[in-house]
């Protein structure tokens, strides 16, 4: 997991695992600002355009002219509110994973082209480089079945485990949707209900139920890794 996917199958209302890494496995996020910029693009693309405009207008750090410039730029961007639903995500130093649902057959293609082009332009401008940032086209795997949808969210959310220092909790990794799940944070552009609805029998503690599910997933991974190591030693 994830499976190789050279031929993309796009369907209406389909769920997808989207992922890509840096060209030559290079890092695509070099500092905190890079992570924040990528997430800001997700927020702008997936929020109602009116929300983004209101955020600019309410920013007291901008003068009238700067607000007009930013609002003008917003209206030139594609908007994917009600076209793309972001279910889970993680940004790692040299790759990213997104779990998405699209409404129309071509929505993900247009969305990913816009997102990757915009982030690459930002990255190349900041670091004074030219050329592709990502290793070919993104990969898109069609997700079939609610069980796979649930387990994929776990796979995405446990990606940062090796990045954590001793004693750190998984929810302390800031560049993932996992903190929003377990801390019950309200993020309009993150569609958590697709996952949390699987824990409907525990309505009073949905985030806790999902946290337990992820912890069990991690435990199984650790057991499988230990069994694999033991086999190598035999």
Could you explain the architecture of this structure?
- Strands 2-3-1-4 form a 4-stranded antiparallel beta sheet.
- Helix 1 (32-46) runs antiparallel to helix 4 and helix 2 runs antiparallel to helix 3 (64-74).
- With 234 residues, it is an alpha+beta fold.
- The chain is 45% helix and 12% strand.
- It starts with 14 loop residues before the first strand and ends with a helix.
- The longest helix is centred in the last third of the chain and has 28 residues, at 206-233.
Furnish the topology, listing elements before pairings.
Elements: E1 15-21, H1 32-46, H2 49-57, H3 64-74, E2 84-92, E3 95-102, H4 107-127, E4 139-143, H5 146-157, H6 178-182, H7 193-196, H8 206-233
Antiparallel strand pairs: 1-3, 1-4, 2-3
Summarize this entry quickly.
With 234 residues, this protein is an alpha+beta fold. It has 8 helices and 4 strands, in the order βαααββαβαααα.
Rounded Rg: 19 Å
Number of helices, counting only DSSP H or I runs of 4 residues or more: 8
Mean pLDDT: 84
The main sheet orders its strands as 2-3-1-4
Shape: globular
Residue stretches low in confidence (pLDDT < 50, at least 5 long) are 1-6, 227-234
Supply the key terms.
4 strands; 4-stranded antiparallel sheet; 8 helices; disordered C terminus; 45% helix; alpha+beta; 234 residues
